[in-house]
């Protein structure tokens, strides 16, 4: 889940730069901001974890790849229709659309 929209203001509408007065609006605004920050931090952690998982999984695929694409950092040399060699992103012998749990 991603945090929607802008980071909320620290203070209420009446006190854009805050106030030394007691203000329920400012108090609520601060609570809202703290909750928002906490939520955003959690979203970041989840996103970072997912990203990390993807990266590790990808590295593992490259290391175990039957095409030995690790030499070309995940790319393999293929012969084009006209016979020229070019690099393409390796699918690591995993058929497209099939998730491997191995
Ligand atoms: Zn206020
Ligand atoms: Zn590969």
From TrEMBL:
This is Uncharacterized protein. It comes from the Bacteria.
